[in-house]
Structure to design on (174 residues):
């Protein structure tokens, strides 16, 4: 596996925060937790666009520090591209800062909405329609950016195995 960064991408309640630390342990790398959750727990969910930019900038700073400090690979529990999807969900547009951001991951794992949605006080989009819309926005952002990405689907251990398989299939040949 030759990726320096793998980003877990996708809507709420899709298993990113469960699988992320496990991937870091499996590959002997480092895990960067979702900055947006930390920010939200401290400041609440009444975000402005400026809050979303601050979340994206905070996550970017943590990711860059992790790349410097190692070990690799760095497993990112979302990044500014997912925060851009949040902006699109909440406001129907995003700040120009997101267009200018260039520190994309080597591989994005797109976590599908095939797990039940669980309310936890910070999650917002739990209906089937909202989840589909959020997923579709997240995929559209990956496609627009032209980044390498792969689906992760399945429940329980199948989801874990599918994440590993997606990484193996996307890994460049030696």
């Amino acid at each position: 596996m030759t990726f320096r960064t793998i980003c877990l991408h996708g809507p709420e309640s899709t298993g990113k925060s469960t699988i992320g630390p496990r991937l870091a342990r499996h590959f002997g790398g480092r895990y960067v937790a979702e900055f947006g959750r930390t920010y939200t727990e401290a400041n609440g969910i009444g975000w402005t666009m400026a809050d979303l930019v601050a979340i994206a900038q905070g996550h970017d700073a943590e990711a860059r520090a992790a790349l410097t400090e190692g070990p690799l690979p760095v497993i990112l529990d979302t990044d500014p591209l997912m925060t851009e999807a949040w902006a699109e969900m909440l406001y129907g547009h995003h700040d120009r800062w997101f267009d200018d951001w260039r520190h994309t991951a080597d591989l994005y794992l797109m976590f599908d909405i095939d797990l039940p949605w669980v309310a936890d006080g910070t999650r917002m989009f739990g209906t089937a329609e909202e989840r589909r819309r959020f997923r579709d926005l997240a995929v559209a952002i990956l496609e627009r950016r032209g980044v390498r990405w792969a689906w992760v689907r399945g429940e329980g251990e199948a989801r874990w195995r599918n994440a590993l398989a997606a990484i193996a299939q996307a890994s460049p040949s030696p």
About this structure: The domain at 5-126+158-170 is CATH 3.40.50.300 (Rossmann fold). The helical segments are 16-27, 35-43, 49-69, 80-91, 96-100, 128-145, 157-170. The mean pLDDT is 91.
